[in-house]
Structures are given as structure tokens and as C-alpha cells.
Specification:
Layout (H helix, E strand, L loop, with lengths): L1 H17 L14 E8 L13 E8 L4 E5 L3 E2 L6 E8 L3 E7 L3 E2 L7 E2 L2 E7 L10 H15 L4 H15 L19 H20 L4 H5 L11 H18 L2 H10 L8 H9 L15 E3 L11 E3 L6
Antiparallel strand pairs: 1-5, 2-3, 2-4, 2-6, 6-9, 7-8, 10-11
């Protein structure tokens, strides 16, 4: 009997402790800690940094890795794109969300839209996070892998690798949140090339998210339709076949802090010849290929091999 009384007292004590945190469910109280991060927010060369751009962090928690709370927004520097944010969150697993002020399309001033960026991060291990188009493409897929049982680092690497495979980019350039548009490394050059093409996609189609722009399935990392990648490759083809990217380089280097950037033309060409068609070389100079009646991007239904680019 004495033993049963002890069990009863323990159960009553547990019940009382669970009810002391008024306004929450019995026994539940989220503990918060200070977390900080810094880096650069970079949309692309034509639109970023934009006045009024701001960034916030939100917690992702198991088992579903939905966002459970958000920090306040902090401003992004309108010249450099730099940000610094400190807040109280329940864990270091966070998603960054960037909100940009309305942006006027420089090619069509009647078109105004808002471009959003995201990134996934574990601030327990790394507090330097750049937010760009590539991190935006990989963020939702990272949480999807975690929901399926992967640890964060494994999930992020799987997501980034899937994006690289979908875009036919080198598999070793996986550190998306460390690349900068104005850097001089290979990853920086790849980001620059893809940002140029994706941004032109935004400008022509007035879309608002990277997922909508590229039509990539966040669970598989693959393009929903092969045509989506062919349209992307067509933009790269147009830039390379026009002047080899010279006009973009001149405009970019005029803005670059060091006056120069990485060799992004190489990655534009890599993207341009990765749509499943034959490579353009000196041996097939002048060759023409028809992209087919079902190819909806009418400006590039026929391509010509010229100066090693379609």
C-alpha cells in the first residue's frame, strides 16, 4: 500500500508541474536561445541589391520540419547586399526568407513584381549564410530529406547535389551558401552564370519564386518537364551566341568591388550545351537544329552552331 501511495504522489506532482506554465499545453514549454547569422543576399546582377530588401529567420522543427516561429525582419544593405541578424529561437535549424521591395523590370517598366529568396541552415555549426538563387532551389528539398530521416548536413548535400545534377553543373560545387556573385572562385562563377540566366527568366516571365521559375520538384530535384531546362539552356545559348557574354562582363565588373569576377562564361556555355543536343564545335560550324513544334519558347525554335555555341 505504501508503494502505491508513492506512485500516486509522483503522478500528482508531475501533473502539477505540467500545469504551472499557464497559456501553454500541460507539460510543454519551448526554450529559446540566442542565434546569429550574417552574409550576403544576392538576387542577381540586374536587380540586387534592392532598396527595401529585408531578411528574417524561421525555426524548422522535427518531425515535419515546418516553420514554428519567425524572427523579426532586418534590413539588407542596399549597396552591398550584406545583412546581420540576431534573435532568440528554439533551435539552430532555420530557414532564411528574403522579401524584396517591388522591382520594376528594366526591359518592361509596366511589369512590377516581388522576388523572394530562401536558404536552409544549421546555425549550431555555421553562422555565415549567403542567400541566393541556388540556396532557394535547394531549401525545401533539404527539409524534405530531413523529414525522411537524414541529418541536416546529409540532407543539404543531397539537395544541393540534386540541383547541380538537374542543371548539369559540376558535382563538387555544393557549397551554395558560401558563393558570391562577385567572388572569383569556380563556385562563384557558377552562381553568377546561373543567376544571369535565372534572372532573365524572371524578367521575361515575371515569376516570383525560384521553384515556379525552374519547375523543379522539391522532393526529387528533377525538372518537372524537360522543356523547362531547354528554355533555361536557350537563354544561356542566346547570351553566349550574342557576344560571348562580353556585355554582361562589362556591366558586372563595373559593379564588382574588386573590378573583376570569376569566369562565368564557362558555366553559361556548359549550360547552353547541356540540353541533350549535340555539342557545337568547329567540326559542325553552321549546322542548324530545329527544337521542334512543341517547343513553346518561340524565340529559340531554331538554333545555329556559331563560334562554339548554339
Amino acid at each position: 500500500m505504501g508503494y502505491m501511495k508513492k506512485i500516486l504522489y509522483v503522478l500528482m506532482a508531475v501533473a502539477l508541474v505540467g500545469c504551472t506554465d499557464s497559456g501553454t499545453q500541460p507539460g510543454f514549454k519551448r526554450t529559446t536561445y540566442e542565434y546569429g547569422a550574417s552574409g550576403f543576399v544576392q538576387h542577381g546582377f540586374l536587380s540586387a541589391p534592392m532598396s527595401g530588401t529585408k531578411v528574417q529567420m524561421g525555426n524548422r522543427e522535427a518531425p515535419d520540419y515546418w516553420i514554428v516561429d519567425w524572427s523579426e525582419y532586418v534590413p539588407v544593405d542596399s549597396v552591398t547586399g550584406a545583412y546581420k541578424i540576431d534573435t532568440k529561437l528554439s533551435s539552430g535549424l532555420v530557414e532564411f526568407s528574403v522579401s524584396a521591395s517591388d522591382f520594376v523590370n528594366p526591359y518592361d517598366h509596366n511589369v512590377v513584381y516581388n522576388m523572394e529568396l530562401t536558404a536552409a541552415a544549421d546555425l549550431e555549426k555555421d553562422s555565415v549564410v549567403n542567400v541566393n538563387y541556388l540556396t532557394s532551389l535547394a531549401a525545401e528539398m533539404t527539409w524534405s530529406y530531413m523529414e525522411r530521416g537524414a541529418e541536416f548536413e546529409e540532407a543539404r548535400n543531397k539537395a544541393n547535389s540534386a540541383i547541380l545534377a538537374a542543371l548539369h553543373m559540376p558535382k563538387e560545387l555544393v557549397n551554395f551558401d558560401k558563393y558570391s556573385l562577385y567572388g572569383e572562385g569556380e563556385g562563384d562563377a557558377m552562381l553568377a552564370a546561373l543567376s544571369i540566366v535565372i534572372e532573365r527568366y524572371y524578367l521575361d516571365y515575371s515569376m516570383t519564386t525560384a521553384w515556379e521559375t525552374l519547375e523543379i520538384n522539391p522532393e526529387t530535384g528533377k525538372f518537372v518537364s524537360p522543356e523547362a531546362f531547354r528554355r533555361l539552356a536557350a537563354f544561356a545559348n542566346g547570351i553566349i551566341s550574342d557576344d560571348g557574354g562580353k556585355a554582361y562582363r562589362e556591366a558586372i565588373e563595373a559593379k564588382a568591388p574588386k573590378g573583376k569576377v570569376g569566369h562565368f562564361e564557362k558555366y553559361l556555355t556548359m549550360l547552353a550545351v547541356s540540353d541533350g543536343g549535340p555539342e557545337c564545335t568547329k567540326s559542325n560550324e553552321g549546322e542548324m537544329r530545329d527544337l521542334g513544334e512543341n517547343y513553346t519558347f518561340s524565340a529559340f525554335k531554331v538554333q545555329v552552331c556559331s563560334d562554339s555555341a548554339w
